C-alpha cells in the first residue's frame, strides 16, 4: 500500500456512511503485500445489487486484497466523499460503480494526480478525458434495452396497434437508465403499432416501482398493454400494484424487465412476469483480475463486456435451480 495520509482512519470513520474493511467476521487478515482497494458501491437498492456486492466482497477478499468498502446509499455526493477518502488513505486502486454518469471529472482528476488507478465496474461515467479511468467492466445496457424491445415485438406478433407501453425507468441520470431507455426506443420506434404512453423513474426499487405503477394505472386505466421495467425489482413492485388494481399481470399486461434475478424467475414461474433480460451482477472475479493487472501496471482493455441472454416464462421452472443470484 502507498504511504497513508494520517487522517485516513478518521476519515473512514467520520465521513463514510457504511465504510467497512474486508476482514470482519472472522475472515482472514490481509497479507503484508495485499492490494488495498477502495470500493464505492451504489447502494442496496435491488436483488441485483445485493448479489453484486456479495460477488465483489468474495473476490476482493483477504489475504490477497485489503478491501475498504463503502455504501453510497444511491447518492453521488456520498460516492464523491468516499473517493476523496480513498485518495486521502492512499489506497492502491479505486474501484466504483457510479450512481450517475456525469459529475466525476474533478474527483477522478484528483485520483489521477495522486497516481491511483480507477477501475469502473457495472456503470459508466461521462467524462471529457477518458484517461481518468483505466477500464470499465460491465454489461451492454443499450443492448439489454434492445433485447427487451425485440421480445415485446415478438410477443406482439399478429396483434393490431395501438399497443400501449408504460416504462419504469431506473435511477435518473444513471448509465443503465439512460442506455436501456435508448436501446428500447431505438427498436420499438421501428414498429408503428407501439406507443410509449408513460415513462417515469422508479429508482430501481420495488417500493418505487409499485408507487409509480399505481400512478400509471390511475392515469391510464385499462389502456396499458405492456410494461417495460428497467429492472426486475421495479417489475415485481409493479406486479403487486397491477394485482391490487384487479388486473392480471403477465396476461392483461405483458411484462418484460431486466436483470434475471431469482425473484424474476419465481414471478415468471407464477405466470406474472413474461420475460427477463439477463444482466449479470457476478462481476467480482473479473474485477479482481482487472485490479491485479492495473496494479501491476499492465495494459488492460478499456471496456470489458459481460455475456448475457434472455429468459422467458416457459424456461423459468427448469432454469430456476441454476440461478446463482
Ligand atoms: O447498474 C445495474 C442496475 O442497477 C441493475 O439492473 C439494477 O437492478 C441495479 O440497481
TrEMBL record:
<dbReference type="InterPro" id="IPR025997">
    <property type="entry name" value="SBP_2_dom"/>
</dbReference>
<dbReference type="Pfam" id="PF13407">
    <property type="entry name" value="Peripla_BP_4"/>
</dbReference>
<dbReference type="InterPro" id="IPR028082">
    <property type="entry name" value="Peripla_BP_I"/>
</dbReference>
<feature type="domain" description="Periplasmic binding protein">
    <location>
        <begin position="37"/>
        <end position="281"/>
    </location>
</feature>
<protein>
    <submittedName>
        <fullName>ABC transporter substrate-binding protein</fullName>
    </submittedName>
</protein>
<keyword id="KW-0732">Signal</keyword>
<feature type="signal peptide">
    <location>
        <begin position="1"/>
        <end position="22"/>
    </location>
</feature>
<comment type="similarity">
    <text>Belongs to the bacterial solute-binding protein 2 family.</text>
</comment>
Amino acid at each position: 500500500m502507498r504511504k497513508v495520509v494520517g487522517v485516513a482512519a478518521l476519515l473512514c470513520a467520520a465521513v463514510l456512511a457504511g465504510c467497512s474493511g474486508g476482514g470482519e467476521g472472522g475472515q482472514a487478515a490481509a497479507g503484508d503485500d495485499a492490494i488495498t482497494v477502495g470500493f464505492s458501491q451504489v447502494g442496496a437498492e435491488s436483488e441485483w445489487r445485493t448479489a453484486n456486492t456479495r460477488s465483489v466482497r468474495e473476490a476482493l477478499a483477504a489475504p490477497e486484497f485489503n478491501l475498504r468498502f463503502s455504501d453510497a446509499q444511491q447518492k453521488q455526493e456520498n460516492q464523491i466523499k468516499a473517493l476523496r477518502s480513498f485518495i486521502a488513505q492512499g489506497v492502491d486502486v479505486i474501484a466504483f460503480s457510479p450512481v450517475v454518469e456525469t459529475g466525476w471529472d474533478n474527483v477522478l482528476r484528483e485520483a489521477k494526480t495522486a497516481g491511483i488507478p480507477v477501475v469502473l465496474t457495472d456503470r459508466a461515467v461521462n467524462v471529457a478525458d477518458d484517461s481518468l479511468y483505466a477500464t470499465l467492466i460491465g454489461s451492454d445496457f443499450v443492448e439489454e434495452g434492445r433485447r427487451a424491445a425485440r421480445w415485446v415485438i415478438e410477443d406482439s406478433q399478429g396483434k393490431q396497434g395501438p399497443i400501449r407501453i408504460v416504462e419504469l425507468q431506473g435511477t435518473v441520470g444513471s448509465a443503465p437508465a439512460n442506455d436501456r431507455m435508448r436501446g428500447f426506443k431505438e427498436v420499438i420506434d421501428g414498429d408503428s403499432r407501439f406507443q410509449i404512453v408513460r415513462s417515469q423513474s422508479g429508482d430501481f426499487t420495488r417500493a418505487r416501482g409499485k408507487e409509480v405503477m399505481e400512478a400509471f394505472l390511475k392515469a391510464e386505466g385499462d389502456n396499458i398493454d405492456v410494461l417495460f421495467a428497467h429492472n426486475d425489482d421495479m417489475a415485481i413492485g409493479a406486479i403487486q400494484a397491477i394485482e391490487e388494481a384487479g388486473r392480471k399481470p403477465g396476461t392483461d399486461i405483458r411484462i418484460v424487465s431486466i436483470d434475471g434475478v431469482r425473484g424474476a424467475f419465481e414471478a415468471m414461474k407464477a405466470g406474472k412476469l413474461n420475460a427477463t433480460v439477463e444482466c449479470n451482477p457476478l462481476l467480482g472475479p473479473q474485477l479482481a483480475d482487472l485490479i491485479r493487472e492495473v496494479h501491476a501496471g499492465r495494459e488492460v482493455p478499456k471496456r470489458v463486456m459481460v455475456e448475457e441472454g434472455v429468459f422467458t416464462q416457459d424456461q423459468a421452472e427448469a432454469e430456476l435451480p441454476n440461478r446463482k443470484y
